[in-house]
Automatic annotation (TrEMBL):
It comes from Cryobacterium roopkundense. Keywords: Hydrolase. This is Beta-lactamase. SUPFAM superfamilies: beta-lactamase/transpeptidase-like. Residues 1-16 have a biased composition (Basic and acidic residues). PANTHER family: BETA-LACTAMASE (PTHR35333), BETA-LACTAMASE-TYPE TRANSPEPTIDASE FOLD CONTAINING PROTEIN (PTHR35333:SF3). Residues 1-26 are annotated as: Disordered.
Length: 300
């Protein structure tokens, strides 16, 4: 049954290849559709969407309404709550937050390897934006509360996307099965609204984008853009990127805004797969970069 469903999804991708753009447009995203179709046949669950940043026109979409595991991508919802609270004098940028033993977690991030027991709130947000720092994420979640993040998410009108839990080394039967979930449709809307300064207000949106612009993970979709992962805030060859990535066992997800000399796009791609072999993982990464190449051609 799984193979049959994958065959149907691949057929759907093939039938809809390039139909989201005019017949005269050179950017038909055929490379990305072919890659996604091949992955679907192999059993990978795919959800993707890209829209023109200025007009909102849908450039391509594949199961963009489906709720997918998105790993650390969901921490952008945490950053929005943190940014909104920085207007509060008791929760200012320089307010120090301590790390505790309960916050400790392995995986991504550098704070766990540093000696500093406390860091300012704004620095913790920068760590989350730049390297998906798990320890900084947990400390910020403890400071603002998951309930507040959920309330903020709902107030934004998001019903298919959520930060479900703190970061954990092991997830038991009583824990949320994923760190975060989301739909490509909602996340592209969210990042477009951030780019337009419409999330809470322009100041809050700008703070969030500033933290996200520090992201050093260009291994997924953004791997096709040729940017320096450690220094791309000022732009390079006319390209400006702001993105958030999520990586977990069998999960690769990325949401971003890419601006170029010709146009800009907002994109979201999530893949769920059996991460049982290295070739399976590499095929997923190749598919993500194929989408990235189509996006690059559209904006440059």
């Amino acid at each position: 049954m799984a193979v049959r469903d994958s065959d149907k999804r691949s057929k759907h991708l093939a039938e809809h290849r390039g139909k989201h753009l005019g017949s005269e447009a050179p950017e038909n995203f055929s490379r990305g559709f072919e890659a996604l179709g091949a992955l679907a046949v192999s059993g990978v669950q795919v959800s993707a969407r890209a829209t023109d940043l200025t007009t909102g026109r849908v450039l391509f979409s594949v199961d963009d309404h489906v709720v997918m595991p998105t790993a650390s991508v969901g921490t952008v919802l945490l950053l929005i709550e943190v940014a909104a609270r920085l207007r509060d004098a008791d929760f200012g940028s320089y307010t120090l937050l301590d790390r505790t033993a309960a916050d400790s977690v392995s995986g991504s991030g550098i704070w766990q390897h540093l000696q500093a027991p406390s860091l300012p709130i704004a620095d913790l947000a920068a760590l989350v934006g730049s390297s998906n720092d798990n320890l900084a994420t947990n400390v910020l979640i403890r400071a603002v509360g998951l309930e507040a993040v959920h309330a903020r998410t709902e107030s934004l009108g998001l019903s298919r996307s959520a930060l479900l839990d703190r970061v954990r080394d092991h997830r038991g039967p009583d824990d949320a099965p994923q760190l975060s979930v989301g739909s490509a449709k909602e996340f592209t809307w969210l990042f477009t609204a951030l780019a337009r300064g419409e999330i809470i207000d322009a100041e809050t949106s700008g703070r969030v984008l500033g933290w996200l612009s520090l992201n050093t993970d260009l291994t997924l979709v953004a791997g096709a853009f040729g940017l320096d992962p450690f220094a791309h805030r000022a732009g390079d060859h006319g390209l400006l990127l702001v993105n958030k990535t999520g990586t977990d066992a069998g999960v690769r997800s990325e949401v971003g805004i890419l601006r170029g000399p010709r146009s800009g796009v907002t994109y979201a791609v999530s893949m769920s797969f059996s991460d049982s072999t290295l070739p399976a993982r590499l095929n997923v990464l190749d598919g993500l970069r194929a989408i990235g190449l189509d996006l690059l051609e559209y904006v440059h």
